[in-house]
Amino acid sequence: MMASVDRLGLINLYLEELKELLVSLLGDVGTTGLENKDVLELTVNYLHSLKKANMLGQTPEATYSARFKEGYAACADEVRRFVCTSGKVGRAEIDLMMSVEKTVTRVNSIPASTFTHPSNHCI
Fold this sequence. Notes:
The protein contains 4 helices and no strands. The protein is mostly helical.
């Protein structure tokens, strides 16, 4: 009997910890007054979203790396789009496009281990 009480206490403790983690991830909105079932459901849904984004089990460095590379590629796409729609494609525009392509290739070749949390770069 005592073991089941201890076990139930641990389960409730872990559910409270999960609830605190969810509040820190999702904010207070929609997380107040959650039942245990809701805590487990939100946790499972969150883990599914990480898995879908291929971020489950990745190191923070790999996550920062992927986000940086995606952002860099999006910026490069905007530069390409701008140059192509500007109506003028001269030597400067061709040089710019070649430089963008080379830089994208270099950025994509950077190992994830060299990336750190963005807050490490703040003054």
